[in-house]
Amino acid sequence: xxxxxTSLDGADNGSxxxxxxxxxxxxxxxxxxxxxxxxxxxxxxxxxxVKNRAEIARTGKKIYRQKGTGGARxxxxxxxxxxxxxxxxxxxxxxxxxxxxxxxxxxALRHALxxxxxxxxxxxWDGASIDAPKTKGLLSxxxxxxxxxxxxxxxxxxQENFALAASNIPNIxxxxxxxxxxxxxxxxxxLVLTRAAVDALEARFK
Length: 206
Fold this sequence. Notes:
Layout: E1 2-6, E2 12-17, H1 20-23, H2 29-42, H3 102-118, E3 122-125, H4 135-145, E4 150-153, H5 160-166, E5 172-175, H6 182-187, E6 190-194, H7 195-204
Parallel strand pairs: 1-3, 3-6, 4-5, 4-6
Antiparallel strand pairs: 1-2
């Protein structure tokens, strides 16, 4: 698969051949969906909790006699039936993460890249660098390119000026190649890869 290489200014800098094993697969939505569910479940804090009847600071003494009141037969005032009592079957602190085989995770990333390539959402840059960390100038360049929502993947390290300038722009994410993931690829309209990122990805899945 051949794609043109451009620059931040929109200038044409030749072309590059993308590996079909990474960018030319027939996308499987089930794999992509499984990976997104895995990512979102893994990042949940799981710190939600309520107090059950054993944790309520209230007397456990029987509130009135068993018979003769003409009402229901109650015992402890800490039970869920009463206002201020413990909650029954409420959430407790736990991990929401679940397992997904490493090979499935790798395959899902390849299918996400292929899905973006099939939709024409991949752009390859020669590099991602600017002279000064100015958000206004970078935003102007993005508007000229028509970027409203984009994930920009650089090589092993993102240039500091570029990362600082892009950090204040809504719907623009900048990551090193190690941080590329299925969820961010799918949630953004465009996927921008630098030449260094393409080389690193092809070496990773070689």
